[in-house]
Design brief:
heterodimer, A: 162 residues, mainly beta, five-stranded antiparallel β-sheet, 5 strands, 33% strand, B: 149 residues, alpha+beta, Thiol Ester Dehydrase, Chain A, 2 domains
């Protein structure tokens, strides 16, 4: 039993949290992301450098694929705290969600022009006790699949809620 | 203790050159407020704690916060810069344990934990710390390195 996790949330473990999203990896968006990170590896900008490193064409930075599927949403859907309303969250009896970390498996390189489908499931939710009291660990797992049907990456994003 | 490889992404580090306990070169990062804004924009992330200082203070933070995923992206950059063009980042996992702030120096460190498994595979311990050694983001990674010759 948990005071922080409603039973209907526990029963969603394994479910898709969002409808699958398919997006084409855009060269300019990927390069803006790389510059915003400060990661100016030539394989993200220069086709010859990407070929020399064994890629089909220019690749995107490894973690860009978690941002590429973010939909273009209206400003009216931004909450007071700046988070998006109804963004595939799960219902919890907590005040605040913090970013706890990520686990990534990178299986294939992702090139600009690739068509990537992202499927996000609730992988796990459990209550733990910490030095500042009980907290909830929410694990959302996203699988990224390219236009050839290859799984290119898996990401497990860990949220800490208290 | 030996420091192995470079942080030049055009230079390969070779599997044969790596031994357990070798250290990676240290990478410095320091985010300007403009960088935080650009990262929010590039990831279409409107969360106020990353650009509205008054709001961040209201939520109990000391300043606006460096995005956890931006620090994760710095970490993957640290690894891909070290690996070079012909190796591959296989997996990485990190924990965001403490908040990061703009205009503060952070350091990425790493060391080789194991390279005795499948040939080419190297397990690393990596972390982000403040200049005085306080760890914000502990991590582990596996990379695949090219062979010599």
């Amino acid at each position: 039993m948990s005071d922080l996790i409603p039973p209907e949330t526990l029963s969603r473990v394994g479910e898709l949290l969002l409808d699958p999203v398919t997006v084409r990896i855009d060269e300019r968006e990927s390069q803006r992301y790389a510059q915003a990170v400060g990661d100016v590896n030539r394989i993200y900008f220069d086709e010859a450098a990407a070929h020399a490193a064994g890629h089909r064409t220019i690749v995107c930075p490894p973690t860009f694929i978690s941002h590429a599927p973010v939909p273009a949403r209206p400003l009216a859907e931004v909450r007071e705290d700046g988070l998006w309303r109804d963004s595939g969250g799960v219902r919890l009896s907590v005040k605040r969600m913090m970013f706890g970390g990520e686990e990534w498996d990178f299986l294939e390189s992702v090139c600009v022009g690739d068509l990537i489908t992202a499927e996000t499931r609730l992988a796990d939710v459990d209550e733990k006790s910490g030095s500042k009291g009980p907290f909830v660990r929410v694990v959302r797992e996203t699988t990224y699949i390219n236009q050839l049907g290859e799984t290119v990456a898996k990401a497990r994003q860990i949220g800490i809620a208290r | 203790m030996t420091t192995i490889g470079t942080l030049d992404p055009t230079v390969n580090v070779r599997f044969e050159d790596v031994s357990s306990d070798d250290e990676l070169p240290v990478q410095q990062k320091n985010a300007t407020r403009a960088q935080l804004f650009m990262y929010s924009a590039a990831s279409f992330n409107p969360h106020r704690i990353h650009y509205d200082r008054d709001y961040a203070l209201f939520e109990g933070h000391d300043d606006v916060l460096v995005h956890g995923p931006l620090q994760g992206a710095w970490l993957t950059q640290y690894l891909t810069d070290w690996i070079g063009p012909n190796g591959r980042l296989v997996n990485v996992s990190w924990q965001n344990r403490a908040s990061g702030f703009p205009e503060v120096d952070y350091e990425f460190h790493g060391k080789v934990v194991d390279c005795t498994g499948e040939p080419g595979l190297v397990v690393l311990e990596v972390w982000e710390q403040t200049a005085d050694g306080s760890v914000l983001m502990p991590a582990t990674a596996t990379v695949l390195l090219p062979h010599s010759g």
